[in-house]
Specification:
three-stranded antiparallel beta sheet; five-stranded antiparallel beta sheet
Length: about 325
């Protein structure tokens, strides 16, 4: 639109009004999981007999959707009328039939994910990263080869540490069972038993995450607006998308999975007669539409709302 059109003044001595249009506002909430794979994940099957996720991953899932229909002024349908005797009746009509005042504005809430953190497994599981290994060195003494045993400090392999962590998990489980069944030399009761069991459970979980990994979760809430274009037939709009790495994204971001808003208008019958004189003001009657939010073939949300731009413009007599 040219800048001159934006600055143009409405004619003096006339009443300017706009017909209403409907904007569909979707308040969407998604939950994002940032999964950190355990450093010993590849040994989980061997030492614990379980299958676990092997690699870091990010996923986002839709948690809830709220649909709100808002009424705004349709700036493409603005008209003028000269005030007269019929003005009080004209002005008494509400936005449901005639004038939209632009009071349907909404506030958008957007929460952006923080930068991804690396999984923190420091200080968990193995108390030492070193182990002792005995080797035999040979040297020639008086023409004969003699072995000399020497202990060397070497780094444990990942599998050695995984095996040690698995053994600790089973040890902690055994200790917990012994305490619960009383099969131990120590005597626990009341709060003391509860505290010991909680600590054993905490330690087991700490070691277990070295194999199974852990997840961080975040919530994202964003508002998306869909403005239906005038149509008498079924219309489909990509309302928003969900990306595993970015969460909730706009409809034009092809990296995300699309969620489609489907709108089906019901028929609007024509009224008898059509006035064509200047002493009639326009007003708009909305069409009642079935609205569905779909994930592929699955319907996530379904409702019925009036949509003005799908309806029919009519006339109201004034200045009589």
């Amino acid at each position: 639109m040219p800048a001159s059109a934006l600055k143009a003044q409405d004619p003096d001595g006339t009443l300017v009004y706009a017909l209403p249009k409907t904007v569909i506002n979707l308040e969407v909430e998604a939950i994002r999981e940032n999964f950190h794979a355990g450093p010993y994940a590849k040994y989980a099957k061997k030492y614990l007999g379980i299958d676990v996720r092997q690699a870091d991953a990010q996923t986002s899932q839709l948690a809830s959707v709220k649909l709100v229909a808002k009424t705004e002024a349709d700036q493409t349908s603005r008209y003028t009328i000269v005030p007269g005797k019929g003005m009080p009746a004209f002005l008494s009509l509400t936005a449901q039939g005639l004038i939209a005042t632009g009071n349907g504005s909404t506030e958008e809430m957007a929460w952006h994910f923080a930068s991804d953190d690396k999984g923190d497994f420091a200080g968990k599981g193995i108390s030492s990263n070193l182990t002792s290994e005995t080797t035999t060195l040979y040297r020639n003494i008086n023409g004969s080869s003699q072995g000399i045993r020497q202990e060397m400090v070497v780094e444990k392999t990942s599998e050695d540490k995984a095996k040690e962590a698995a053994e600790m998990i089973f040890k902690l489980r055994k200790m917990r069972i012994q305490i619960v069944t009383g099969d131990t030399d120590a005597t626990y009761s009341g709060e003391a038993m509860q505290s010991v069991l909680q600590e054993l459970t905490r330690l087991e979980h700490e070691y277990f995450t070295l194999f199974a990994g852990y997840s961080d979760y975040g919530k994202q809430i964003t508002s998306f607006a869909v403005i239906p274009e005038k149509s008498s037939e079924k219309a489909r709009y990509i309302a928003f998308r969900v990306s595993d790495t970015e969460g909730l994204v706009d409809a034009d971001n092809i990296a995300g999975k699309p969620y489609v808003l489907e709108i089906i208008p019901e028929p609007v019958l024509a009224a008898d007669g059509a006035p064509g004189k200047s002493n009639f003001a326009r007003y708009r009657i909305p069409a009642i539409c079935s609205v569905k939010l779909k994930d592929g073939m699955e319907v996530l949300l379904q409702t019925r709302i009036p949509i003005y731009q799908f309806g029919r413009d009519s006339f109201f007599p004034v200045n009589k």
